[in-house]
Amino acid sequence: MKNCGFIVAMVVVQFAYGGSNILIKIALERGLNQFVLIVYRHIIAMLLLAPPAYVLERKERPSLSVSVFGKIFLLSSLGTTIHLNVYYAGLAYTSPTVATALGNVIPSLTFVMAVLLRMEKVKIKSAKGGAKVLGTVICIGGSLVFTFWRGGFQSKGFVDRPLINIHSTNASHGEFRHENESWIKGSALFLVSYIAWSGWLILQATASKVYPAQLSLNVLICFIASLQSSVLALFFARNPLLWKLQWNVQLLTIIYSGVVLSALVYYLQTWCISNKGPVFAAMFTPLLLVFVALFSAIVFAERLHLGRQFTAISYFLTSVKKISPTK
Q: Among 89, 15, 69, which residue's Cα sits nearest to residue 265?
């Protein structure tokens, strides 16, 4: 029954990420600075998680040694400062659907890292060991298939026109296009971002062992992430007007990112990783493709492609097989 809880938690995580991809794309196109977003969202999450962390984990919170702090600092650097800033930079060059399509390398990258660090055992000569290796190859190759093979249209889209116009386009037939779209730049940035995120998943498992107070761990991550991004903002977001908040989609995005992503989602991921391992958490990444494709079809009037949906489901099934324990 507890395993069902972990599965439900990770599905909720991917659904929340799906909504954030759409919101953040809109907010960034409308002028929200990515460094401002990262600073604000982690401050909100820190303030939200600090009270329950102090009360509930007062007795189980371990002392913060230099070694433990170093792990948490690196955790914040990989999962927030590097991953988010590079990801948001890549999002400026392409659509959320493409971003999440390339994200299917995350289960494979995490699996490879886990094997290299001896957190995951693989017996290549066994049937299940061979399936894990084959699944890794399929996931990496499948990311390319998902991105470049569109297949036939399932439909003309849920709506005839985008519900929200975030920029001027010459789009026709409901196909979402970007004027300054650069697939190579965007894809390269996403890959760097996903390498950092895979490292975060691996390090999260290690950090959870030396610092098992999960709420307090997330408070520290958010605190350090807000400081790191504030330093970057001194160079890239000096204009005071960038920090001024108004009642618009930018404010909604900041609140959603802080409350749902940096507070709730980070905690759920930490909980799942500490109990089931980093590969388990990574295997749910393909579901994000389905959610983003549906949200993009509704909000941006993107067409749904049979090729993309077919490979998204294949990714998830392959990942499930890949994490089966080797006997």
A: 15
Q: What DSSP string describes 162-209?
A: -SS--S-----TT----TT--HHHHHHHHHHHHHHHHHHHHHHHHHHH
Nearest to 288 by CA among 166, 197, 205, 167: 197
Residues of the chain with pLDDT under 50: 150-155, 168-180, 322-327
pLDDT attached to residue 177: 44
Task: Please give the Cα distance from 320 to 285 (Å, whole number).
Answer: 11
Q: Confirm if 146 and 311 have CB atoms less than 8 A apart.
A: yes
pTM for the model stands at 0.81
Here the tokens at position 229 are 């991004």
pLDDT for 261 equals: 94
3-state secondary structure of 305: strand
In sequence order, the 6+-apart residues with CB closer than 8 A to the CB of 30 are 166, 248, 249, 250
The SS3 call for residue 1 is: coil
Q: Answer for the pair 282, 10: CB distance below 8 angstroms, yes or no.
A: no
List Cβ neighbours of 215 (8 Å cut-off, separation of 6 or more): 49, 52, 53, 56, 57, 267
Residue 268, C-beta contacts closer than 8 angstroms, at least 6 positions apart: 9, 10, 12, 13
Provide the CA 173 distance to its chain's centre, in angstroms. Answer: 30
- Partnered with residue 153 across adjacent β-strands are 305
pLDDT tens string 30-64: 889 999 999 999 999 999 999 999 999 988 899 88
